[in-house]
Amino acid sequence: MNMRYMKPKPRGRGRWPHRAEWIRALGLAFTVVAFFSSAAVAALQANWIELSTEPVTGTYAGHDIPGPRTLYVFHHNLTSTTAVRFRIQAGPGVTVTYVSETHPFPQTLGDTQTGITVCYGGQCLSGDQLLATVTYMFYGTSADCSKLLIVPHPDAETVEEMDCDFVPQQVAAWDFTLYAVPDTYACPLSWPHVIDGTPKAFGCSPVAAEETTWGRIKALYR
Fold first, then answer.
1. CA torsion angle for 222, 131, 159, 89 (degrees, to 10)?
2. How far is it, in rounded angstroms, from Cα 48 to Cα 208?
3. What phi and psi, each to the nearest 5 degrees, are found at residue 42?
């Protein structure tokens, strides 16, 4: 049998990527670590307010197709919560028009466009909760990648909730992305994020500031 001697592959530089490739790989790794060790991780682990095109959570974007469209506003992944408040704001480039909305929780003040406060009827809830069903008129003219933003209630510094110990907490916001038709499929990823600010105690009935006590705050949820 005619056998040829095969020289083994050299160890050392030949087996490893070029230094520039290592630098690029390490740079990417540090970028990923920095991102996922930042406030983004806290937001992803937290509960958030989102708009969905379906009556279930998880569809954070949609095409600006002309005609009436229904969006569902959810408090997602909440844990031991009695109330929440926030507002929806059209970001730059959005041309949709607000039409109307309905609320499943009777103890709701205001609306999503001017500032909404939803109390969960004295219940301490967890999971996903539908807060509002909102109808918009779409015209097909919104800028690609424009957004409907979840922002603080006018009386608040941040998007916030009251937990079951009646302590105010921050809630993350997941903005809704609008795609032009046809879209470019170039919109950056949207992630839940926490808006800087100090959460404040609140309820679902107006109370004069000078008369507010923890006892009165708790009474607003019964």
1. -140
2. 29
3. -60, -40
DSSP state at residue 211 = G
Residue 13 token pair:
């530089």
- Rounded-to-integer distance, Cα 100 and Cα 128, Å: 22
pLDDT exceeds cutoff 70 at 63? yes
| Parallel/antiparallel/unpaired status of strands 67-90 and 125-138 | antiparallel
Pairing status of strand 160-163 against strand 67-90 = antiparallel
CA distance 112 to 71: 11
β-bridge partners, 69 = 136
DSSP string, 143-158: PTTEEEEEE--TT-SS
How far apart are alpha carbons 93 and 36 in whole angstroms? Answer: 29
Q: Look at residue 123 and give its three-state secondary structure.
A: coil
58 in Cβ contact with 174 (< 8 Å): no
- Mean pLDDT over all residues of the chain? 80
Helix ranges, 149-194 (H): none
Residue 217, pLDDT > 50, answer no
Helix, strand or coil for residue 218?
helix
Question: Residue 74 in contact with residue 50, Cβ under 8 Å?
Answer: yes
Q: Are 160 and 202 in contact (CB under 8 A)?
A: yes
Looking up tokens 């056998």 gives 3
pLDDT score of 20 more than 80: no
Strands 176-179 and 61-63: parallel
